[in-house]
Every structure is written in structure tokens, then in C-alpha cells.
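lol ok so funny story. i was supposed to be doing the assay writeup but got distracted and ended up predicting the structure for this chain instead. priorities right. anyway since i did it might as well share w the group, maybe its usefull for someone
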Amino acid sequence: IVYAVVSNVSVAAMFMAGIFPGILVGIAIMIVGGIISHMRDYGTPEKTSASRIVKTFFDALPSLLLIIIVIGGILSGFFSPTEASAIAVAYALLLSMVFYQEVKIKDLPRILLQGGITTSVVMLLVGCSTAMSWILAYENIPQSVSAAMLTISDNRIVILIIINILLLVVGTFMDMTPAVLIFTPIFLPVVMEMGMHPIHFGIMLIANLCIGICTPPVGTCLFIGCGIGKISIAKVLPAMIPFFIAMIAAVMVITYWESLSMWLPNLLNLIEG
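and the output, tada:
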């Protein structure tokens, strides 16, 4: 959504464009996990009965409906992305308080305060990035970056590899939201000059930055996972290397196989022009 706002593209198209690339990344990770499990002979710790699968599915169904409500509502035009976010919050609050009963009324002030702090940080970043985007455009920075890259090579494959490497490096020390806000205005004109669609570039950018949230020093997912598993990052990182390789390989496929991202939005007539 943040990228769609910055690059002025359809939020619904971005949602649809991310489905097949997301599946590709998931398959790549599952293949690596399966190979490692087989090599280390992890086996199957317990058998899962059909009744348990059905019960688990229905337990998770209310949460899964959130995705359908949000994406379905946006695609159908029933509500805007902004309205979708409000509906998602209301639905999630209803689930957590009534269905799962994990949130109490007394918890709401703390949750609202934390949400307000997070929102204020994001809005501050949006404001600063908007000003920065204006300065970059005024100083012709995107054109300078484009010219600098073209002096290295005029080959589209090489330029995209350079951008991918830069985004992977950026993702290791910068969170996704500020990275999207800051680097979209710099790289988007470059790739558009090479004929790359903004939606395709958006999926490539997000895929690169998603790898970054799994790496230190600002690896949000890494820190959360290590906290849940009660294990040190130093022990986890070596084991994650095969998964990083799989994700980077998936990003390369996403980068050079445009139809993977663009086929579904085109099918649903979500691409303007």
C-alpha cells in the first residue's frame, strides 16, 4: 500500500501482482526446508488426523476471512484501501475480543496508545519522505542516478542486478516502510526508462526488502522468531543461509519473469493504460 501511494499505482493491482511471486517464494522456502528435513532425518514427530486438520482449518477460518474481506472489498470497489484498513482493524478487534477472547477491554488503552505511536512514526516518515522526494526531483537526483548506472552498463539485466544488490543491502539496515518511501523515487524513474512497469518494480522492491527483515541488524522477523524460539541469533543465522539463497533465487525469477507479477493484474483489467 505504501509503495502504491508513493508510485501512484493501483493498490488492488499491487495486491494481485504479489500473489504468484509470494507463492513462488513460499515454494522455494518449503523446498529448502524439505531437503534439510530429509538430510537431517527429522521425520514426522506426530501424525495428524483428518479431524484435527478440519478443526484447525475452521479455527483459523475467521482470521483467513480477513484477507478475503480486505482484498475482495478493494477489488470489487466496495471500499477504498483506506476504508479497507479501518474495516480490517475493526474485524481483527472483533475476532480478538469475541471469537478468540485474547484481548480484554482493559487492554484497549495500551493497544490504542501503541498503535498511535506506531502511526505517528509512519506519518512522520511519510512527511519527511515526501519532502525528500520533492528535493530529489528538484535536484534531478533520479536522472543523475540513471545516468550513473548507464555509465556502468546499458544492459537491462546488469542494471537490475545492481538495483537488486543495492536493495538487498538497504534491507539489512533499514526497515521496509522508510526504505520504500526513500528509494522508490530514486530507482523508479531508472527502471521506467528501461521499460519496466512500476507494478513489476514494486513487487521486485518489496521482495528484496522482505529478505532484509530476516537479516540483522534490523531483522524484525529474525528477532521475533528468535524470541519465540528462545534461541540466539548467532545460532540461527548459519542455518538460515540456505533459505536466504532460495529467497534470492526467487527474487531473481521475479525480477526477470515479468508475467509472473503482471499476468493476474492484466487478467483482471487492473492495469491502467
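The chain has a mean pLDDT of 84. The chain is about 80% helix and 0% strand.
back to the writeup now i swear
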